[in-house]
Here is the input.
Amino acid sequence: MKKYLSIIMSLVLIFSLLAFSGCSNDEASTDDDSNNTPVDTTPSDTTPVGEDSDGDSDNIQALLDAGEEVIVAWCNNNADEMVMNQVATFEKFYPQIGVTFLFSSSENVDSEQISQIENYVTMGAKQIIFGANDPSIFSDIVAEGMKNGVQFIIRGVSEASFPVTALCNTSGRNAGMNLANMALAWLDERYPDAADGSIGAAQSTNSPNTEDPPRNEALQEYLFSDPRINGDDIYMQDTIYIADQGYTFAEEALIYNPDIRLFIGYTEGVAMGISNYICGRGDLDPSEYAAFGAGYAEAAAVMIDQAGEGSAQSCLRGLVTLGDVEEPGLGLYEVSKGLLLGEIEGPNYVGYDIMGVITY
Here is the structure.
């Protein structure tokens, strides 16, 4: 068994002003190397980062030097393993520069998340990070907070329908390309001489995420165009995220098309659930199947090891890690700290997190 980890994308910090009227997904996605060049398009008439609506400078470093409390709060819609791994990076690094870091999860209850954000504003938080299934429902509270000098970062999106200080996501196109590369390597190893159209494929998607279309386009371009794959009949399900859903997804996919051998899960949880279903069926040979996904969990890494060793307990064969494996969330942290200390500026700054690959 050989497991290797390679960081395939360094932190890309992209200055980009989203045009909220008439902008397209292509303008917010990273679909070519030109997007790796930072471009400052911040208009001169916007309120500078760290200043409130009255124009009084809120020098964060001066507050820290004076020993005053500076709060950065992260209010997420869930607290799954990937999120908590990223939170651990914030909890490690922010205290080192004297910043108080707080985290809460609403467990996907929108009204609770709104209350948590309101509480952080009342506490005097200088910056609030949040992830949400539908960020638009927070537009009013974000607008009110920004008037009072609070910075807002939306995690997991690269465009928004309302002004925010910043957004931070991972590049959907790069995720798709790396998923495709891993899947093609497995196909070449397991089915090098498969007849055209003989390999069925299934994919779970997440249409609410603005980086989903670029990911899907990359998969179509680099993976599903392979002649061995029946690219005209990809079994697809949208907005499934966790292992239980991945288990059901695999079951329904194989009912739809028993020839499916390749599964692309939107998250690591979906990929784990797919593997659990296939390996739990006594009439299937796990070596004939492969599941890939995006995200990171230690349990998923163990399953990749098992697949690499030829174990019948796993057919999870690779993950694109949406963040650095050693320091998950490091890219998001750098965006957060940069905005807080005035090293980078909003509004509508778009940053992209680090990405890596783990394969069997």
Notes: Residues 18 and 27 are 8 Å apart (CA to CA). Residues 1-57 have pLDDT under 50 and may be disordered.
